[in-house]
Here is the input.
Amino acid sequence: MTIEAPEFVVPLPLPRDCTFEPSDWQILARHWYPIALVREVTAAPIAATLLDEPLVVYRAGAEIVVANDLCPHRGTPLSAGRGDGATVACLYHGIRFGAGGRCVAIPAHPQGRIPARMHLDPYPVIQRFGLVWTSLDRAADPAAMPAMPCWDAEGFQQINCPSIDIAAFAGRQVEGFLDVAHFGFVHEGTFGDPDNVEVPDYRPVVTEYGFEVDYPSSVGNYPHGGKVGEPGFLWLRHFETFVPFTATITIHFPDGGLLSIMNAASPVSARRTRMFAPIARNFDTDQPVTDVYAFNLRIFEEDRAVVEIQKPENLPLAPGIEVNIPADRSSVAYRRALRRMGLSEFFTA
Here is the structure.
């Protein structure tokens, strides 16, 4: 995966109501994003939106199909239709689509030839980390998918938290996830310590897909009111960032415990984000996952309250617009990586 600005490629068709600068959209549209939890895709089709493009997601046996949410016949959203786990039928005339987006039945002409243009032109799909990933570039390279530590490792429990909708730009949300100076302020109600807010020195390292950083700190990660960290224990948080909008954190707990969380911010539009958070851990694996859902929801709700009121709404990539401090090294590395992708200076929309 490269973070450099791409050479000239044939432009992709823009959505009808694009909220991004067209040049930014062209860059963003060529990456992979999650749009649904695999467990959500059952018999009924579901609607999703990625980069302002309305999509339908439906199941065709073991395959999950993602396509433009539009019946080629008379323009009715297929997400409003009916599915049976193998096909989806348009609610208007019952035209049915199956694996690979192929039209398999036109009820008005059951013996007639199916026009080639009646078939859907699906987007690529990868099922990974319990999520349905797609790209609006039908030639997207599967090798460019973000990675997640520990997910497939022996002894680790796999947890898929429900998605969270955020009325903010994906870049702002990801930057907040990477921020190490806000724990004692934003997360005072969950795990942060308002009496321990000094940020030790740390140094991001540029990678081919973004950057990574080790952040050692005495701030624990246990929920308030529960376990208490060992005196003097140094918590290591290892961040990996996959531009544009995915990052992971692996937290080293006492006694060899590891907790890996992916923050995958799916840009619904320039002002709305659907955030997915797969989790892998090798401790407390017999505990109810609903407890994990609840605790992580509290944390992300604390973050959301800040991200939704930040101004400017988009992420300013010009260095002089906001003031940086040493604790912002991850933020600076993130913005530099986005600039190297060729995104506009102010990331306007």
Remarks:
- The first helix runs from residue 22 to 28.
